[in-house]
Prior knowledge:
The protein is α+β, with helices and mostly antiparallel strands.
Amino acid sequence: MKSFIxxxxxxxxxxxxxxxxxxxxxxxxxxxxxTTATISTSPSVSSTSxxxxxxxxxxxxxxxxxxxxxxxxxxxxxPVPSPMVTGADDIYSLSSPPPNNYTxxxxxxQTEIPFHxxxxxxxxxxxxxxxxxxxKAYLNREAAEMFKQMQLAAQQEGIEIIPVSGxxxxxxxxxxxxxxxxxxxxxxxxxxxxxxxxxxxxxTGYALDVGDGKSPNTVLKLTFDSTEAYRWLEVHAAQYxxxxxxxxxxxxxxxxxxxxWRFVGSATAQEIFRVAKTQRQ
Length: 281
């Protein structure tokens, strides 16, 4: 009996004490971690640290879309055009009004290239559509009404389409063509830039030359097709019955004229330009 008690005191009790200490340490809670952390800006910060991006401000506007073409320069004063500058029909020195006594003029046929279609001079029912350098421009009434509607629609969008030349008599065209022959050296060379008398669409009262009021330096020049007025016409002119008479590479072999438009929005106009439209199609 004494030997059992001795064994209990020296062996069993120490074992129980050691087990108790182990159990106590196992249930002890670790220290709490801090709830906030400070990000150091020193070079020793690890490159793997994640930093949230700054929030995007609300109601942030994107830059406006840019125009696909430059605006016309309107800072310069309106210059007086010189007939010697442009290679097209020069009408600045011609200021005669339409004739009071209308006479049908039937020009002879023309088949050479450049090919011009003959048109009868028609001064009936002409209406004034504007003034260009103290020279009045006229169109046939139905063409004039549609031009004014088109001009007003463009104006509401900030576009200034101005009439440069409308109806033109055979006599006036003869003066212009003779001037062109002097410049170009021959009738054939002149006919690429100007119609011979009796072959101009201007004789009909259904065709006109236009310009951009904000870009006067482009009047009767190829650079007119870089203006706001021309770009507007490309999109909207057909809605008012107008079409470009001499586009690039036209079948008549006539010089490209972005300023020259004809009215084809009525039965009368369709008949007048029937040959031109049939050949064009």
